[in-house]
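Case study 2.
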Amino acid sequence: MAKKNAYDLSGSARRSWKTEFRRDWVVYMLFVPIIVYEVVLHYLPMFGIVMAFEDYNVVDGYFHSPWVGFKHFVDLFSGEEFPIAIRNTVVIGLLRCTFGFVAPIIFALMLSMINSKKFKRIAQTMSYMPNFVAAVIVCSLFTQFLAKDGPLTLLLSKVFGAENQNWFAVENPPAFWIIYLLMGIWQSVGWGSIMYVAAISQVSGDLHEAAALDGATRMQRMFRITLPSIMPMILMMFVINVGTALAAGYDNILLLYMPSTYNVADTVYTYTYRQAFGGGNTNYSLSAASGLFQSVVSTILLVGSNALSRKVAGSSLF
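Prediction:
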């Protein structure tokens, strides 16, 4: 009898799926381009991982290039500048996961406290604009503003007594790290706040009205109602940010740094780029080894932060 019931349930599930597909087949078809995109551009290229274990060259291809095992991993990890690149990657990643992560949340909370809808829309629109400016233009602007005769440099030196210098050429920490962090916040704070603004808009207004009638101030309502209500969204975004911490905005760093600032600006991505494609040499295998190493570390960080979120707050991404 038990087997019959189990069979009936599975048969019912199959029939319901078929019925749903016949009814909503147009919706399912909308996913076909997305599936094709993911398979072609993300899953098929994963076969390129084998390059990390080969002395790869374009002529011989994947199947005829000589197998060298972990040689490229040894070359990557044994480089004299690799520990510095790891340190800079960790520091920049921590800054992004702390100050850079908190900034959009604070901005979204500030927007939620504005009563004027017109002013709120203007502020949101203005904050989104830097996200659509090309990285080359953003880096060029900051380079000119913080040059030795740049307006921001003159402001810092004349008003605050700072040294008149090219701030992007400072070889010692933490000048480059702070400038890079502030540039990233300026460029992404508005765009990064979209999810939090949407989550805040879903918080019940009855809760705020009841708290206001009980004498709660706006700050108290923000900390006691708004923040707890959007905490699942904050934790989800935190897990994602930790998983991508190693990326460290390598495109901006590649545009900003110079040989004199490798000590503070070189990350794993830029270090790999210079080792694999700099100096006239092209070492695809070394870049593949570095990419595999970073993917493994990012996966560990993602799974670890998700488990920590589930244990501490009872909410997780997966």
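The chain has two domains: 1-30, 81-313.
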